[in-house]
Amino acid sequence: MFEERTSRDTSNFAMIAFRLGILITFVVMIARMFQLQVMENQQFETLANRNRLLRIETPAPRGVIYDSSGTILVRNRPSFEVALVPEDLPFDELDTEEIDEEAVEVEKVLRILRADVDRDVALRMAEILFIKLGYEDFVRTVQKANVPITFLDEPAFVTPVTEEGRLTVAEPRKVFFPDLEQPLPLEGLVALVQRAVAIQSQGSASDPVPILDGIDRIRAFEISEESFRIPAVRINQVPVREYIYGDLLSHVLGFMGPIPAFVAEDYQKAGYNNPNEKVGLNGLEFTYQDELRGKPGVRNSERDILGVDVRTVGPEVGPVPGFNLYLNIDRRLQAIMQDALQEKMTELEAPWG
Fold first, then answer.
1. Which of 337, 143, 189 is nearest to 250 (CA)?
2. CA proximity to 160, closest of 170, 150, 151
């Protein structure tokens, strides 16, 4: 007898389900592509431009301050800083575990800068790296390099007291602060520079890391002549504020420094995009900050995936110098200034007999 077939032929059903699955997948992919490229195009284009384009500001020459007779009270003078480009430093070869090529190169740079024999250079370098790395990272890096570090047991940190954004009083509170008046050995400075370079390499390895400033023109030329031995070194010119009469007019002219953290948001809203920009903190430098500052220049630089500048995109806007300021000074203060100027001229002429 013939047996009744109870199984069903599911080949047609499986083929239909397979084709339907492919169709649904293509519909979902096309819908997603439409969402990304059409509906959310503006959002992703903005994010891509943030990764690709970098807004670079060129500081404008700060205005000069004169007295009523045209005598310069405050002016700008050129100064130079030494920086290291992380991508130009040698890599640490895995085959030579006992030798750190990057540390050897950094040590060579520091010896050329005389950080091993010049106390002032070592102190200033440690101060710059302390500001860049911060308290905890600075101390941890030095101790990890087995370099002894001394701490102050006196009030060495200040809590700023402000009045309408102006620094007025600083009340000390006691903390254990590294004694930056004691120069670090060369091993400690090398470790700190390597740490600063490593942090910068996480962003753009082509951006230089400043390690020393206040270099005069002659010393800058001497270091530039050694560029064939230290290809990672860059000499950058930076303007510094010079007060002709020193402390005599400090209560009137004020002083400058980096933007304080407690007013950083206010300055950012006012168009200050660089948190390290130096601004007036008191006196006329503070009161006429916007007028003296001028308007910085702007250019948009296109960078590749490695952070290397490829080209400038769009028009470049040049900086607009700040306005000069003329100050009325009474006769008594003017006489004191003349005496101070005469004393300075006498000191300069003394070595020449």
1. 337
2. 170
